[in-house]
């Protein structure tokens, strides 16, 4: 057993959780900063309509992110549990299959997206005033899909091996490159939203190169063979099953964005679309600590579950739930107290400020509940309980939110559309609590078939 794996199985949970989570938080915080920088530079350097165009393109990015997260988290869960059981052969095969499926799945997405981009953007809610901005941005970003999948999904793989610091560096590299290129492309070369897109493309490319180096080089010396890259149906099925919850969450989020953009264009104006784009960016920022905590928790829970150390699994999950709830409560207070100041960072447009301030306060009403909701979903993924993870992922977006977004505006107009978000979060949290409580109480050591015999590393 390697030192990093021994640490995961023996080090006190409290210290271990923070050691794994702080690098993840740092990396994700920097990534969110460059996402915010994109929005700020577009709003300040190009205009409100350009902001709306980028917001309309967001569902496409979310679909790419859904692929990346489903592949990354699915195979990372397999790898961490295999390492906990000393099954290095399975870990290597899962790693090889991750890279193979990432390339095979990304290429058709790129081709389809580029050929049918303009009609897709119209379906996503692009109005005549903003479609040129959306097309200019999305056309470039689609070319970088494969690099995004490798960079984002591969980052989860690096964490599964216990390299939290290297995973953090991989995220920071892309963020720093983007932060440098954004202002240069807009204010020096006057490239508009296309410049922002090219900056994102280059950042994804550099991050993917670094992640590949972390996995195959960098002193790791993994004994991966060519055969490991051949598709293994059992591994693909397991990875897809576990990662399905991440894909469902982000893909349904993409569908939600489409319905939202169309509804905002119908019940309001492009200003509302731009305002909601800003709010989603802000949401990413305030929830980064929670996502970082989940990324720190999952390999710890997965590896200890694979080793049959259930008490340590429960300990790390309980700590994660408590800390995540504190973070989500803090996010609620910040957004309720300073909505105008937060929206004002992105634009000085008075109408945008007025719309965004009111929308933000309604949007965050149930935020104190989301820390637990996210932590519970992360727990199910970590221990390989894909069925519960998938159910909870689809519950919030597909089963509750999207129907409410379609029904409530018929009776309450724009206010009904806004209110659908906190109402959804209240109901989703109640259901999540009972599903989590039942599973957590019954958590037991993996069956013998789930824990392969040790295979020594060559």
From TrEMBL:
Pfam families listed in its UniProt record: MatE
Transmembrane is among the record's keywords: yes
Location relative to the cell: Cell membrane
Entry's transmembrane regions: 21-37, 49-73, 94-117, 137-157, 169-190, 196-219, 326-347, 359-380, 389-411, 417-436
Topological category with respect to the lipid bilayer: Multi-pass membrane protein
Biological-process GO terms, alphabetical: response to antibiotic
Cellular component GO terms, alphabetical: plasma membrane
GO molecular function, one term: antiporter activity
Superkingdom, taxonomy of origin: Bacteria
Keyword terms: Antibiotic resistance, Cell membrane, Membrane, Transmembrane, Transmembrane helix, Transport
Family recorded in the similarity comment: Belongs to the multi antimicrobial extrusion (MATE) (TC 2.A.66.1) family. MepA subfamily.
Name used for this protein in its record: Multidrug export protein MepA
Species of origin: Candidatus Magasanikbacteria bacterium RIFOXYD2_FULL_41_14
